[in-house]
Amino acid sequence: MVQQYGAVLTTATDATVGDSESSALLAGGAAPLVHQKQGHASMLSSVSNLTNTIMGSGMLTFPLAMASSGIIPGILTCIFSGCIGAFGLYLLSLSARRAPHRSSSFFAIAQLTFPQAAIFVDAAIAIKCFGVSISYLIIIKSLMPNVVESLYHDLTSPDTNPPAWALSGRNWITLIMFILVPLASFRRLDSLRHASYVVLFSVVYLLAIVIICYFNPLEGTAPAGGIHLIHFTPNFISTFPVQVFAFTCAQNLFPIFNELKTNSQQRMNIVIGTSIGSAIVVYEVIALFGYLTFGSNVGANIIAMYPSTSIFIAVGQLAIVLLIMFSYPLQVQPCRNCLDKIFHVGTPIKVSISDNDDGIVDEDHAVADMSPLKHTLLTAAITGVGFIVAYFVNDLQMVLSFVGTTGSTTISFILPGLLFWKISRDDPSMSRTLNKAALALAGYGCCVFVFWYVTLYYCLKRRGLKSFQQLGVQHLPNFQSLRKFVPLMEGPVKYTYI
């Protein structure tokens, strides 16, 4: 069955072998030859971009998460969270095949399932990605002066200080925007593969730090506390959400599906499995070696636990900045694409709702439909407004925690489950067990949503506050002390504990 929403079919007289569909009869006449654009992204590029989207500076919090429960529960909860995240991505990849040819998106799938809510779905994703992108800039602004100071002292003399301009976070984000804006302007996710390679190198460097410093502790390293196989503490309530949201990347699953060359389900499964699997391994290694090094004395940022007098550690701090910096474009792109769908609401599209249909579907990539002018204006608006907010504001944790947590829960669990459940409910070829599992995933997302806000309320009570309103503007400058207990942003948080 094919639902057509008034889309105009296009012809291609120069279609090549493998790039066209079979002809069909339309309105009694011969159908035109339809050209289908194909993806050109490699498996390595797709895995790198998805892995980069997953891994953020929140990985540095995993030793604390393990300390709050012990080694065995820490390992198991990380694996569990990764498997749940992978299942959500798998459901999205199955749903993507019902959208127009290589034009899959949350909006396109929502048009098939909950058409009245499609615009709200994209709005939620756009807000979430925009909030995360701002948090990246704020973190870069706060980290760069410390990184510069550490590197300067290690490379010169501890008695000399770097120039005053180099210690200004505002100067650094202004300079860095000259790098980030061109990267954020790329239409294709595949164009960001080289930036993702840099991020993965930074991750490897951070892994080297925690492993080497375990076997060869640096002079001045704090003594280790107690180490337990199983030891739950009250902090487990606030650190568990860090693991749950550490695998958020669903906003870029559809672009990867659209751009991957030969995007069969088997190849998509490899991309998803490799990305999630790599993230699990990285998180487990950092958590285990960080916890074994410092035990119960481990802090929320494992890199900050090592003496910064070593150039080895100073470069590690720079690696964190690079990791955050080159992850920024991966938030801008889905934000721009969602805004494009919102501004095009009501535009006729044509959708195939069954893999077995012989109908003709839309040929263009979703991102390719955006005019150069609109692409430029949206990119300028996202990066410009984000820069202005980050330049003048130092503390948006409370606002961003709500935006990131709500958005991450929605796109990682609730939407994948609901969309696939609805789209496969009346499909006899689809497993009923898988259909029910999708609904269970949506229910799990709702539970996580409630759990996070209960956790936040619990943490506020620990600080002696009676309501969320008491964390108003007047309290934000003192919010730093609450970071130890409250996971924030991008699920509660990729950037919390820096």
Summed up:
It is built from 15 helices and four strands. The chain starts with a strand and ends in a 36-residue tail after the last helix. It has about 500 residues and is mainly alpha-helical.
Task: Give a structural overview.
- With 498 residues, this protein is mainly α.
- The chain has 15 helices and 4 strands.
- It has helices at 43-54, 62-67, 71-96, 106-113, 118-155, 169-184, 193-215, 236-244, 253-259, 265-294, 311-325, 329-343, 372-392, 397-424, 432-462; strands at residues 2-4, 25-26, 29-30, 350-352.
- It has a two-stranded antiparallel sheet with strand order 1-4. It has a two-stranded antiparallel sheet with strand order 2-3.
- The longest helix has 38 residues, at 118-155.
- The radius of gyration is 24 Å and the shape is globular.
- It starts with a strand and ends in a 36-residue tail after the last helix.
Which short descriptors sum up this protein?
498 residues; 2% strand; two-stranded antiparallel ribbon; mainly alpha; single chain; two-stranded antiparallel sheet; disordered N terminus; globular
Structural class by SSE content: mainly alpha
Q: Note the main sheet.
A: 2 strands, antiparallel
Specify Rg, calculated over alpha carbons. Answer: 24 Å
Show unreliable segments.
Answer: 1-35, 348-368, 465-498
Which helices and strands appear, and what pairs or packs with what?
Elements: E1 2-4, E2 25-26, E3 29-30, H1 43-54, H2 62-67, H3 71-96, H4 106-113, H5 118-155, H6 169-184, H7 193-215, H8 236-244, H9 253-259, H10 265-294, H11 311-325, H12 329-343, E4 350-352, H13 372-392, H14 397-424, H15 432-462
Antiparallel strand pairs: 1-4, 2-3
